[in-house]
Design brief:
By secondary structure, the chain is an alpha+beta fold. It is built from four helices and six strands; from the N terminus they run ββββββαααα. It has two domains: 127 residues; 43 residues, no CATH class.
Amino acid sequence: MPLSPAAPRKRLHARDIRYEGFLRDDGLIDIEGRLVDRKDHDMTLLSGVRRQGDAVHDMWVRVTIDREMNVQAIEASTDAAPYPGGCETIAPAYAKLAGRNLMHGFRRALSEAMGNVKGCTHLTEMIGGIPTAAVQLFSSLKTREDEGHRKPFQLDRCHALETSGAVVRRYYPKWYRGTHDAVEEAG
């Protein structure tokens, strides 16, 4: 269902964030992200005027992981930023997160290593979305979500897929851990 109708308004800003996942020939996986901010009007910054539609931010990341979601490498790049000579200089520092696992404390480690003045707010935000993009990529590598003898990765990682809930009882009965009477039927 879409959002309710909006009040009369004028758009001022658009942010596009896109993630793409790639299976490499060497068996590793690349997750690439791009963040672009644009204004719907000319904007005067201390570093100069950004014309309507020109990127205020245009940033890229590539996170290379293995099949266990261990980070092998991180590369970041800034093509456009409000403060040239400053913003783009921090991008190489993100490489220090290599060796972390996307599913075990990665966002906390990212915040500790690159939060606030230690990093770029926008790169840090974009890299923070990489774990969920990786989960979606991994779902493309399986023939069925419930294959195997291990609990499917996505269970107990969001409200709908809590193992004591009705959705899991309906779609993943093998992994359901609730009581039949305590849970409403899933739609």
